Amino acid sequence: MTERTIFHKIRDKELPADIVYEDDLVLVFKDIRPQAALHLLLIPKKEGDVVASIADITKSTEHVPGMLIDKARNFAKEKGIDGYRLTFHVGKGGGQEVFYLHLHFLSNQSLKD
Ligand code: AMP
User: Fold this and answer.
1) Domain boundaries, the chain
2) Fewer CB within 10 Å of terminal CB in the chain, N or C?
3) pTM (2 decimals)?
4) CB of 96 closer than 6 A to ligand 1?
């Protein structure tokens, strides 16, 4: 990846975001234009795990989509959310706007503290 996207800046804390979960590998924050009661975005943090899109996954990054799905599943379980949708937009034709791989997490159940 050559160009730094808005998600690089959120990851590097150069731009603010409503962060709901973070560990060494993944950052989870609220989508600024929510399409459901709860709309989160999960992004990989390690530079070696960052690709522009699902279409750009190679051997060295093939673990990343599964890792994001795993984090989403664990997050939902921990928060007691039992119904949700997970989506990757792939390419401009697939509605992708930000070319930093991310997983959308949408639920009609909102987040309880
Ligand atoms: P995609 O269409 O899959 O590329 O999704 C990009 C998502 O990022 C959209 O749902 C936007 O609403 C969201 N988004 C863009 N800028 C920000 C931001 N600064 N903070 C949080 N979400 C954002």
Assistant:
1) 6-107
2) C
3) 0.97
4) yes
